[in-house]
Design a protein that fits this description.
3-stranded antiparallel beta sheet; rod-shaped
Length: 143
């Protein structure tokens, strides 16, 4: 009598192992799918960030505050209902949106190229439409 059982066959009996090329193609397809999924998640994140713009309402100072400082250096915010420290003055343009947020109605983006800073650097700001601009400042055409 023989030791082999004729039927039923074992599940893996007679099925050849996949070739090396087949394994590499499967692993490559899986890696490509994972990378494409990760790219889609990152792309969706940036699309939502652009659509909802969490910094879309950024101002120089909070409500009830305005920029002030020593003449020409208005880089700090102070409450508008309290007196300023000695030697400080209010920023003549008042509280305003940050330059990258100047697309609000009634506001215009301005820039100036400071002397001695090189041609590639320009200072940008945002002011109310119709504001008289000091020397070297000009409006920026934003498309």
């Amino acid at each position: 009598m023989s030791s082999q059982q004729p039927y039923p066959r074992q599940p893996q009996e007679g099925i050849p192992d996949p070739s090396r090329r087949t394994r590499i193609l499967k692993l490559t397809a899986i890696a490509a799918a994972v990378l494409a999924g990760m790219g889609a998640v990152v792309g969706l994140f940036f699309a939502l960030l652009w659509a909802f713009n969490p910094v879309g309402d950024e101002w120089h100072c909070s409500d009830g505050e305005a920029p002030a400082g020593p003449a020409g250096d208005y880089d700090r915010c102070y409450e508008t209902d309290k007196p300023l420290p000695r030697g400080f003055e209010w920023d003549p343009w008042g509280n305003r949106p940050i330059a990258s947020n100047c697309d609000k109605e009634g506001w215009v983006q301005i820039e100036r190229i400071p002397r001695g800073r090189g041609p590639a650097w320009a200072e940008e700001d945002c002011v109310r439409e119709g504001t008289e601009l000091p020397g070297r400042w000009r409006t920026v055409d934003v498309d």
